Amino acid sequence: MWLHTDPPQNCQGRLAPPIYLIFNSKTMSFITALILFFSFEQPISWRDRLHYLWQLLWQSTPLIVLYKYLCAWHEHHQSFLGALLCVCLLQMCVGAIYHLRRGSFQIDRFLMKNSLMLLQIGAVYLLLASLEVPLGDSLVTEVFESSLQAMTLLYPVSKAVKHIFILSKGKYPPQWIIAALYQYEKNGKLKDFFQKFN
User: Fold this and answer.
1) What percentage of the chain has pLDDT greater than the value 90?
2) Is 12 left (phi over 0), alpha (psi -120 to 50) or beta?
3) pLDDT of 71-91, one tens digit each?
4) What distance in Å separates the CA atoms of residue 190 and residue 75, rounded to the nearest whole number?
5) CA separation (Å) from 12 to 9, 17, 79, 91, 176?
6) Per-residue confidence at 48, pLDDT binned at 50, 70, 90?
């Protein structure tokens, strides 16, 4: 047994690293769960075996992968995320003022509609962003991503701008911006929408 003799060495004659440096605690926990799951020498019920294995797999793999993906996405899209949060907050404030002036404001309806809007924005963005995967890193991907971000921002922006137009009794923003927003919603051509600002 090597515990009573010299420590193990690798092929160059150097000492092999201790086992605790090779495996981190997550890996060791996973291995422990596998050993307990397949161990029949201990009286462990199948229910307990499956429960601990499921709990360990759920805590380690999907959440870590999701966390790493979200951190990488956040680092790459900070300006877009900041703009989206500001736009959504402004849209909520303008919508609340609009409904307060009309006398139709109800807090439960306000929270429900805005939660639904945020869910729609997030779901559509994630679904369409998944289409970038087969494109790889190319000019087409950059154009697609820019178009997707502009489209995502235009949804809450258009709602807020229309409410502001009604609140100002058609004085601001100019009529041609409202017409451009309606035209964009009708045909979805971002190029035509942005060309109206030139």
Assistant:
1) 38
2) alpha
3) 888 888 899 999 999 999 999
4) 26
5) 8, 13, 51, 66, 76
6) confident
